[in-house]
Write a structure and sequence with these properties.
284 residues, alpha/beta, 11 helices, six-stranded parallel β-sheet
């Protein structure tokens, strides 16, 4: 296991759609036990308990991708040294946008929502997005996810009982506008999800995928990773067979959490332009 170094000692964890910062609770405990300072900033206005957001999802309906990125950029900008940035699902998309702004010592996009440029979305992704995308009226709404929908999107590799327990503890309504922004990014010349994938001066980036992930199947994550092939910056990809979208608590989550941290620490301390003075011109 990795331990903090003088150069990298802080981790920023960014949650995704239908979730809050609570979804990281196990990763926080694991990383903090190794001596890292772990921050889990919520999306703007969502720094509330799950139960409160279910009762009043107004802050969720107000979410926009750019304001989420700006919010996290301000937090990272106030830190004494660049942190490792990790994001799950839409948090993984936000992570990529933050690295594109030259923020962070390294980034890990955990089963990330796609940046602009990924052209094909499989049926599983479309089915997972259907609760929001089936109606244009949902663009400016916070749309609840039912137990059955959560079971398909997050809990498909665990028992019904375990999936229902995870839904009860973690699930909140999803931000319609955020999902619409990402889903139709390729039709928007000014899409908020656009990244300069040829940038050579960004921090190292790892993208991970789950073989049984219905929300962001491996084909989407690998297509996302391939968009960076024109860059000499460090880009990694790793797939976990049999894993779903529920990386916060699915059995075996420790393996993915440990690899993400070890990869990020090594990459940051050796290759990050925000950490070392000279970054080798090589791929990883």
């Amino acid at each position: 296991m990795s331990a903090p170094t003088a150069r990298v000692d802080t981790i920023v964890l960014i949650h995704g759609l239908w979730m809050t910062s609570r979804s990281w609770e196990r990763w926080v405990d694991r990383y903090a036990a190794q001596g890292f300072r772990v921050l889990t900033p919520a999306w703007p206005g969502m720094d509330r308990e799950v139960e409160e957001l279910r009762a009043d999802p107004t802050p969720i309906a107000a979410q926009r991708i750019t304001t989420i990125v700006d919010h996290h950029a301000a937090i990272i900008g106030e830190l004494p040294r660049p942190p490792i940035v990790m994001g799950h699902s839409f948090g993984g998309l936000i992570t990529q946008l933050l690295l594109d702004r030259k923020l962070g010592a390294a980034g890990v996009a955990v089963h990330p929502a796609q940046i602009k440029g990924v052209l094909k979305l499989p049926l599983a992704t479309l089915r997972s997005s259907y609760p929001i995308l089936h109606s244009p009226a949902n663009r400016d709404r916070a749309v609840p996810v039912t137990r059955e929908e959560f079971r398909y999107s997050f809990g498909n590799t665990v028992s019904q009982e375990e999936s229902d327990a995870a839904w009860e503890r973690y699930a909140v309504p999803g931000a319609g506008h955020v999902l619409f922004e990402a889903a139709f990014a390729n039709l928007n010349p000014h899409a908020a999800t656009a990244v300069d994938t040829k940038r050579a001066d960004r921090a190292p980036l790892l993208l991970t995928a789950g073989g049984e992930d219905h929300v962001v199947p491996p084909s989407v994550v690998s297509a996302n990773a391939n968009l960076y092939r024109g860059s000499t910056a460090i880009t990694g990809y790793r797939e976990y067979p049999g894993r779903s979208h529920f990386v916060g608590g699915e059995p075996g989550w420790e393996e993915e959490a440990d690899f993400a941290l070890e990869w990020a620490v090594e990459a940051a301390n050796q290759y990050s332009p925000t950490v070392v003075s000279e970054m080798p011109d090589r791929r990883r």
